[in-house]
Amino acid sequence: MAKKNAFYAQSGGVTATINATACGVIETARKHRRHIGKVYAGRDGIIGALTEDLIDTSKESAAAIRALRHTPGGAFGSCRYKLKSLEENQAQYERLIEVFKAHDIGYFFYNGGNDSADTSYKVSQIAAKMGYPLVCIGVPKTVDNDLAVTDCCPGFGSVAKYVATSIREAGFDVASMARTSTRVFVLEVMGRHAGWITAACGLAAEAEGDGPHILLFPEIPFDEERFLAKTDDSIRRYGYCTVGVSEGLRWPDGKFLSESGLRDAFGHAQLGGVAPLIAQLVRDKLKQKYHWAVADYLQRSARHIASKTDVLQSYAVGKAAVELAVKGRSGVMPVIVRKSARPYRWTIGVADLKDIANHEKMMPRDYITEDGFHITEKCRQYLAPLVQGEDYPPYRNGLPAYVKLKNTPVPKKLAAAFKI
Amino acid sequence: MAKKNAFYAQSGGVTATINATACGVIETARKHRRHIGKVYAGRDGIIGALTEDLIDTSKESAAAIRALRHTPGGAFGSCRYKLKSLEENQAQYERLIEVFKAHDIGYFFYNGGNDSADTSYKVSQIAAKMGYPLVCIGVPKTVDNDLAVTDCCPGFGSVAKYVATSIREAGFDVASMARTSTRVFVLEVMGRHAGWITAACGLAAEAEGDGPHILLFPEIPFDEERFLAKTDDSIRRYGYCTVGVSEGLRWPDGKFLSESGLRDAFGHAQLGGVAPLIAQLVRDKLKQKYHWAVADYLQRSARHIASKTDVLQSYAVGKAAVELAVKGRSGVMPVIVRKSARPYRWTIGVADLKDIANHEKMMPRDYITEDGFHITEKCRQYLAPLVQGEDYPPYRNGLPAYVKLKNTPVPKKLAAAFKI
User: Fold this and answer.
1) ipTM of this predicted complex?
2) I want to staple B338 with a disulfide (CB 3.0 to 4.6 A). Which of A226, A355, B151, B296 is the partner?
3) How far apart (Å, rounded) are the C-alpha atoms in residues A328 and A324?
4) Catalytic status, residue B264
5) Are B126 and B39 in a shared domain?
6) Average pLDDT, stretch B202-226?
7) pLDDT tens string B343-383
């Protein structure tokens, strides 16, 4: 293929390491100048392509691009915007091709989860159908760790390290307060459908008595009575109890606990977290003093305690995406392959986008203990390597020094605007 | 004074660095064997002294004591237990002296906040009155940074570093999502009476447009209308808005927002956080998508991102306490003295316990901007040095390796039990 420009976009919820992937894409593209001209990024993801709002990454210095490796969030903006099916809105796909044509774009890199893999796949189909040569590569990312085929997902290892560290630290605090004050601590973590992040909390428990003592997975319907009995037992044995709970915890009837109908003083529904509900149960039924935390975005943006393994893998998938592209591979996604468990060794493999699109990888049942309240040794073996190693950002004035790019726009070439 | 044993206890809410102080006390005591025999720690704070439940720290290896320097929580247990006044319950004080006498304790180190300074002062008075030679030293600690006389409080700098880092990181996340999703992010932090921790969030904002865009201090009554206008303005200018809010935020009538009367589906009062309330306001009045986090214990136990300055100061007050004690100084507390602001230089000074007991150091009004929503340059100058430097703990299996002591009990010598 003659030299063409590349388009890169970030999609969906961002992570602490998605910019490490962007760094991998851009630095590697800069090394393949024979094939790749400029890398244009979509401002706010695919919306940037539809609205012809492109960012010229060639205006950024090598140092700025290098700093992406240690900067959380999505440097070019991301979006929650799913393209409709080809049948429903073919105009969207045609618009994409039109914009790519106008800017001489021959490579499409889409950095996201299941939906993004699906979009990349569809874009590759429509490009072929329209006779427009376009190499389409999906690049994996999601804190939820629920992509098919890949052994793990870039972004997950860092959240895992954050939640395991945080619940261990809070456990040390609660243990010291338990005699006269707080006996139960509840940490709410992300993962609405799959319990991978909840499971990662379990890594903090290495010896008998270590917290977290209880994990509440989205896969296991909440059994109030058994939970309270287990909490009470933990307090009796160890003096306190720490709990990691998924935001997606459900009642046996399938309803989310978070939709349990909290009302403010005026009777308005309140969108609360699960942690305060669990804590309140503990207070009402066990009469124990509690504290609760909701980590929310802190967990997925905590670049200051990123997993080195995760950063390396996040960069590697970006690099591999470009290397696959210049070889002309299309409709594929670089994935992480576990070559060996102990010692942990991994490499980058290649998967077809259609095998990844719209699948969700749930926690295997044998990763959760029989009583449903903790992780098994098998799960621990799987998770442990993913949090290995530290990769600290540089600090300035006592705080992590993260980069803000210039994000210079590419001059528009098309007359027509596109309404999203 | 002839060689005597020492008693050390941790009091009140623990911090990420109170064990660094314990490390300073014990390591320094071990260097003064001519004056100090064994260091006995109170199990669960002063309760351990009252119930004669003492821990023999001489049973711990030098490596274990060294590891306290990087371990959060209170290694010997703490308690929320305030001794009554001398008039109300002289028996408590007499019991303390009885236990100290039984175990040949001549030094009393009490590591805590205002209340603990008060207790130390009273214990020194009663000892003198009873003719029992006891050197009483208060050792400062509190994440609230509200102790009088000392320039800052050991434990505060690390919380400050954590909250400033966290809100900066979450800000990078929200900025990338704002086009189609979350536009407002609210982080709730500790500090029920004084806004020092809320102020520390402000350190993350270094340039025009940086978050946090709004701080809600406990010192400034919450003005809903002005808050919403400011939030709206921030979204218009920067595309998003991040907010740091104190758990102690109050309505103009003085009531805590956290007591605003959230009810569950059954009408039971819910003890919620402030962050979800603020977020809900944003949703209802501005129709913007929001996320919120409550850091709770995570902030005060986050040893993984402790401030090096704070760790050094926490250790130094422990060391100084013992050095003061062997010189026979009693009724005093080592404090941190700021010798110079830029470059930041500090030293350890000495204050009388009675000048510290029961005072609360509030944020000066000129540390808060006129509109009440941010910190002034003067405040930034004060806070900035306190978060300087990193002091990472060692890691094992990808997680911080914190020490759990053996906490071997000292055999009891008194026949009578004491009911607390």
Assistant:
1) 0.97
2) B151
3) 7
4) no
5) yes
6) 97
7) 999 999 999 999 998 888 999 999 999 999 999 999 999 99
Residue numbers of chain A with a pLDDT score lower than 50: 265, 270-271
pLDDT by residue (tens digit) across A303-330? Answer: 999 999 999 999 999 999 999 999 999 9
CB A71 within 8 A of CB A303: yes
Residue A259 pLDDT: 77
B413 part of a folded domain = no
Query: From residue B97, how far is each of A341, B57, B135, B136, B258 by CA, in Å?
Result: 59, 20, 12, 12, 42
Q: What is the mean pLDDT of residues B91-108?
A: 96
Residues B160 and B294 in one domain: yes
Q: Which CATH number goes with the domain that contains B94?
A: 3.40.50.450
Cβ neighbours of residue A62 closer than 8 Å, sequence gap 6 or more: A30
Residues A85, A186 within the same domain: no
DSSP string, B255-288: -BGGGS-EE-TTS-EE---SHHHHHHHIIIII--
What CA–CA distance (Å, rounded) separates B38 from B57?
7
For residues A21 and A71, what is the distance between their CA atoms, to the nearest angstrom?
11
Q: How confident is the model at residue B272 (pLDDT cuts 50, 70, 90)?
A: low
* Higher-confidence position of A114 and B231: B231
Half-sphere exposure of B384 (CA within 13 A, CB side): 18
Question: What is the tens place of the pLDDT at every residue in B14-60?
Answer: 999 999 999 999 999 999 999 999 999 999 999 999 999 999 999 99
Residues B262 and B281 in one domain: yes
The single-letter code of the amino acid at B38 is: K
Phi and psi angles of residue B194, each rounded to the nearest 5 degrees, phi first: -110, 140
As a whole number of angstroms, the distance between CA B22 and CA B313 comes to 12
Task: Say if the Cβ atoms of A81 and B277 lie within 8 Å.
Answer: no
Look at residue B263 in the predicted model and tell me its pLDDT.
Answer: 53
Residues 354 through 383 of chain A touching chain B, CB cutoff 8 Å: none
pLDDT in tens, B281-308: 999 999 999 999 999 999 999 999 999 9
Same domain, A264 and A320: no
Which tokens is A29 given? 């593209």
Q: For the whole prediction, is pTM greater than 0.80? A: yes
Per the DSSP assignment, residues forming a β-bridge with A216 are A245
Q: How confident is the model over A75-124, as pLDDT tens digits? A: 999 998 888 888 888 899 999 999 999 999 999 999 999 889 999 999 99
Q: Among all chains, which residue has been given the structure tokens 């960012």?
A: A55
How far is the C-alpha of B370 from the C-alpha of B375, rounded, in Å? 9
DSSP A75-124: TT---------TTT-HHHHHHHHHHHHHTTEEEEEEEESHHHHHHHHHHH
Question: How many whole angstroms separate alpha carbon A157 and alpha carbon A105?
Answer: 33
Do A129 and A183 have their domain in common?
Answer: no
A382 occurs within a structural domain = no
Instruction: Tell me the chain B residues in contact with residue A280 when contact means C-beta distances shorter than 8 Å.
Output: 264, 268, 270-271
Count of the separate structural domains present in chain A: 2
> Do residues A145 and A174 lie in contact, with contact meaning Cβ atoms separated by under 8 Å?
no
Q: What CA–CA distance (Å, rounded) separates A79 from A47?
A: 7
Q: What is the largest CA-CA distance in chain A?
A: 73
| A294 vs B contacts (CB less than 8 Å) | 273, 275, 292-294
Q: Which of B301, B335, B368 is the last residue of a domain?
A: B301
Distance between CA atoms of residues A25 and A29, nearest Å: 6
Which residue out of A399, A402, A403, A404 would a mutagenesis test of the B interface target, given it has the greatest number of B Cβ atoms within 10 Å?
Answer: A399
CB contact under 8 A, A298 and B265: no
Contacts of A141 (CB under 8 A, 6+ apart): A10, A11, A12, A15, A17, A18, A21, A111, A112, A113, A153, A154, A155, A314
Give the angle B218-B220-B225 at the CA atoms, nearest 5°: 115
Q: Find the domain containing B320 and state its range.
A: 4-142+303-358+389-400
Q: Do you find a cis peptide bond into B140, omega within 30 degrees of 0?
A: no
**List A44, A53, A115, A144, catalytic entry:** A144
